[in-house]
Amino acid sequence: MSSRQNLNHELSKLFNKLWDADVNRFTPGKDYRISLQGKAGYVPTGTNNAKDSASHPLFLYVNEERLHNVKTFAAFVSLLDNYEMSTGVTEVVTPEEVAENNSFLDAILETAVMKMAHEYLVQKKLAKPTLKDFKTQLYSIWFQLYSREGGRGTDSCGFEHVFVGESKRGHEIMGLHNWVQFYLQEKRNHIDYKGYVARQYKSRPDEDDQVLNLQFSWKEMVKPVGSSFIGVSPEFEFALFTVIFLLSQEKVTKEVVRIEEYELQIIVYRHGRFIGTAYPVLLSSNNEDLY
């Protein structure tokens, strides 16, 4: 069965509205430039050896002034250093970090993107009508700590996994599906980009593609395939993943949507009442690819 038959038209319509409303999104070629370089090789599961098909970083340039001056990006960046990388190590959340989490949610809830997502969820009776109550709901879904390994203390949360990334006891990368974190870690020489992962119907992505499948190492551990939006705002990703999370009670939800020219599968894993992980997978990025 082709993915076209599974396309969720209702969500595609909503997500395109959110895409158009995302005024904070960075423009490829203007606000940032990337260098895709070579195609990544195959990495067997459990190994941390990968052929390096990229001698340079992925990000050649990012407009840091925008990163620090756009309110939602600035609030987002301040959250990225608040977590213990390895699972099995209990997270301690300070009052300052709780305040930073709240400031971030306040900032994204002021945007048209999150307001539209909220309206949609209210119509579906999946969110409370006031933004104050919706903020409480978002805090629980994304920032409530839980035990990823079971019985080892509260060592994880949805935000940490998806946006910051974590390691499975220091041996395996989990999560890290956010381009800002990727860029900042790459700048600190913690991430080594290994090359792009080609898609089924297309040999090479384009430098202005805003969804990419990548291979990289992070602090010596290899991620064979990591998929990520590139350039989008934090509120856009929060809106997408939250909508899909709240629409389904399934442990794993996979929705095929078309946003702009991208045909994507958005995948959300549930960890009880919270987000376990969430990420986009690029299926194709123009019409010819579908045939």
UniProtKB/TrEMBL annotation:
Keywords per UniProt: Endonuclease, Hydrolase, Lyase, Manganese, Metal-binding, Nuclease, RNA-binding
Cofactor(s) required, per the database record: Mn(2+)
InterPro entries, alphabetized: ENDOU (IPR039787), EndoU-like (IPR037227), EndoU_C (IPR018998)
Domain of life (superkingdom): Eukaryota
EndoU domain mapped to chain residues: 7-284
Enzyme type, top EC level: lyase
Cited Pfam families: XendoU
Molecular function GO labels: hydrolase activity; lyase activity; metal ion binding; RNA binding; RNA endonuclease activity
E.C. numbers: 4.6.1.-
Assembly notes: Monomer.
Family note: Belongs to the ENDOU family.
PANTHER family hit by this protein: PLACENTAL PROTEIN 11-RELATED, URIDYLATE-SPECIFIC ENDORIBONUCLEASE
Protein name listed in UniProt: Protein endoU
Source organism (scientific name): Pleurodeles waltl
